[in-house]
Amino acid sequence: MRLTLITLLTLAGCPGDEKDDTGTTETDADTDADADADADADADADTDTDPEARPLTVNLQLVDFLYETPIEGATLTLDGQDTTSDATGVVTGTATEGAVHTATITAADYPPLLAWFSSEGTYFSPISYGILAVSVNGLAAMEIMLGVDVDPSKAVVLVTMEQVDAAGVTSHFGGVSIGLDQSYDVPLALDETQAAGFAVSNVTVANATSPSTVIFVNVPAGELAVTPTTPDGSSCYPVPSYDTAHTSYPVAAGSLNYIFLQCHL
Question: What does the pLDDT read at residue 9?
């Protein structure tokens, strides 16, 4: 709110001039009344023009990683509100402006999934995108294929990259090397050209049919910083804002942790 500072100047009349003294008193009263009216008008104007926090609308489509089928009946918890995904796997939630939000997604036969949205900076609403979820059976299959046990005291982290052009059109972003400030056992870049659906790599694949996603297995729980290195030098931000200050995420043990970054030239 703007503060209005009003300085009152007291005009002294000539000694012995009662008529002038009376006139001066009336002028002071008028000035006070006008100043009060102006202050009230300023206060009303400030109150009327203060913008309200915009709602952030989040539309997610939940898809099974292995079977590429929608996940129906999943619960999205965002800002204390629960909503349920429909037969197409779509679920919608809302959050307020000016914060970093944690969305929790739970579904039968799936580990809890956490995703983060930042509305600290300039952002676009609504945002809509898909989230790949790995079922308990899917994790077991990955363990067999990779020869790596998924440690329940650690986290599985999925990082998805997306490129945004000058017109605001988004596309897959291959060739992005994703670095973490914590250890992990194995990185898996999703790649539809591979029989298993992924390759052991921390670099997103450069083909149009594969999500630009890397899965990191067995990341220690706690704050995690993600550093993407793009092939074109573009800057990347947490969806859906240009929030450059938010670069770390509180990943949780025994869960999938989904981080979505958009990159702009």
Answer: 22
